[in-house]
Amino acid sequence: MLRLRPYKACDAETIVSWIKDEKTFYKWSADRYKKYPITADDMNAFYDASAFSDGFFEMTAFDETGVTGHLIMRFTDEEQRILRFGFVIVDDTKRGKGYGKQMLKLAVKYAFEILMVDKITIGVFENNESAYRCYLSVGFRDTEQVECYPILGEEWKCRELEMER
User: Fold this and answer.
1) Tens-of-pLDDT digits for all 165 residues of the chain?
2) Residue 91: which of 72, 63, 111, 110 has the closest Cα?
3) What is the CB neighbour count within 10 angstroms for residue 45?
4) d(CA 91, CA 153)
5) What span, in angstroms and rounded, lies between the C-alpha atoms of 69 and 104?
6) How far apart are CA 74 and CA 120, in angstroms?
7) One-character DSSP codes across 103-128
8) Residue 91 carries which DSSP code?
9) Fewer C-beta within 10 Å: the chain N or C terminus?
10) What are the CA-CA distances from residue 105 to residues 43, 83, 93, 117 (Å)?
11) What is the pLDDT of residue 52?
12) How far apart are CA 112 and CA 124, in angstroms?
């Protein structure tokens, strides 16, 4: 059974091991990290810098086999009614088996029932079709808003999705 808990620094080594190439790295992090590859120390330093905010939550999904997924949640408004999911990743050996969908359903439940938000947003690059389909299957809807990022000498389009209570 998949469960969700707060991220621990010891999770970083496992999570960064799932990022096998630069393209996967940017699909996961967009332009938030400045270099590839990242280490567990880089990940923990990034989160430590964000820890001063009451509106930033790093979460880890796990089951009886260990850590299976990761995502962050952060408030994007002062009233703390809109929450953004990001850094969504699943163990690369378990992708395509429903782990991402399960993890996101748990995160959505947490967002609506515990944090009491009105809306959740998430971005996904158009070249990440499996993540896009996963987000739609959980209940996100495409807003048709697109932002462009210069990544790896290309212009990647990022679609904006949202879900309301």
Assistant:
1) 999 999 999 999 999 999 999 999 999 999 899 899 999 999 999 999 887 678 999 999 999 999 999 999 999 999 999 999 999 999 999 999 999 999 999 999 999 999 999 999 999 999 999 999 999 999 999 999 999 999 999 999 999 999 999
2) 63
3) 13
4) 27
5) 10
6) 10
7) HHHHHHHIIIIIS--SEEEEEEETT-
8) -
9) N
10) 24, 14, 20, 15
11) 67
12) 21
In this predicted structure, what is the pLDDT of residue 74?
96
State the Cα–Cα distance between residues 131 and 35, nearest whole angstrom.
23
**CB contact burial 73-97 (16+ within 10 A = b; e otherwise):** bbbeeeeeebbbbebbbbbeeebee
Structure tokens at 161: 């999705």
In this prediction, residue 53 carries a pLDDT of 75
Q: Residue 135 is encoded by which pair of tokens?
A: 């987000």
**Coil vs helix vs strand at 58:** strand
For residue 140, what are the contacts with CB-CB under 8 A and spacing of at least 6?
Answer: 120, 122, 161, 162, 163
